[in-house]
Amino acid sequence: MSMHVFDLRDDGRTPPDSGLLEIVQRGLRAQPKSLPSWLFYDERGSALFERICEQPEYYLTRCETALMREHAASIADTLGVDVRLVEYGSGSATKTRLLLEHMASPVSYVPVEISPQPLRESVARFAERFPGLPVQPLGADFTRPLRLPIPPRAPRRTVIYFPGSTIGNFATRDAVALLRKMRGEMGENGGILVGADLKKDPALIEAAYNDAAGVTAQFTLNLLARLNRELGSDFDLSAFRHRAHYNALAGRIETSLVSQRAQQVRVGRMLAKFGEGEPVRVEISCKYSLEDFAALAAKAGLEVLRVWMDPERMFSVHYLVR
Ligand code: AVJ
Prior knowledge:
Layout: H1 20-29, H2 43-52, H3 59-79, E1 83-88, H4 93-102, E2 108-112, H5 116-129, E3 157-162, H6 172-186, E4 191-197, H7 202-208, H8 215-231, E5 240-247, E6 252-259, E7 263-267, E8 270-274, E9 279-286, H9 290-299, E10 303-309, E11 315-321
Parallel strand pairs: 1-2, 1-3, 3-4
Antiparallel strand pairs: 4-11, 5-6, 6-9, 7-8, 10-11
Helix pairs in contact: 2-8, 3-4
Bound molecules: N,N,N-trimethyl-histidine.
N,N,N-trimethyl-histidine binds near residues 165, 166, 209 and 283.
């Protein structure tokens, strides 16, 4: 099982295993400094992310939803009948709802989510919308090995749904490890339905992470507000700036908090020193061509059975099988 164990220090989204303080101190001691992107999603961060999705520049959610509206029937048809649908992250109700509406006799819906509140909300939403559908919530960190609940009847297959281009937050090695873990969980006959943002004009990509209203900047800076609140650190939010740059060679957005001056910040017993202009990496968002994604899947022992795209070919949804 050791290949399934994650040790994500830089760009990972693995929630605390050791304490928050240790994770943050380790990230600030590293060279270059980095903090894991799952730290964004406290209550305010989750609300800010919802607002990002409404910004005109942030095409990802809009395009993925358009894709699902256009292709949900075809996707559901590809997944087949008597499917157990496991969703990583309790995601937006919209996309999953579009999918479930077209699925023939789903066996159960299993939302996997580490935060109790969003998990409760998704259970309530789906129970109301699909009264006949067994919902089996799993409060867990999806980057760790999961013990899926026993289904109410035998499914034909288990499909793991991982929408939103969240896979883009993982560097290649970690993305491969996560896909391999999913491959094990879906079983012999299962599949993975995964959303991935596509490579395109870098100006469009960069704009999506630098919206004019500044919501993404607030989202990024909120991470420091969270640390101040939860760790009693003394980050001066006006002394750091959001920076999101598209690294074309790596094919990814790299988001940092950049120290605006030389400064020292107290984090527990640690005194973290920042140089003027020094970045703290807080997120990567990888972009793929169809070939890139097929190669990634292949590294995890998976094959792309089908791909769907929105009409503008901005976003892709891949169905992966063994
Ligand atoms: C939710 C991980 C897909 O990387 O595009 C949005 C998060 N960060 N704006 C992304 C995010 C900045 C988002 N994902």
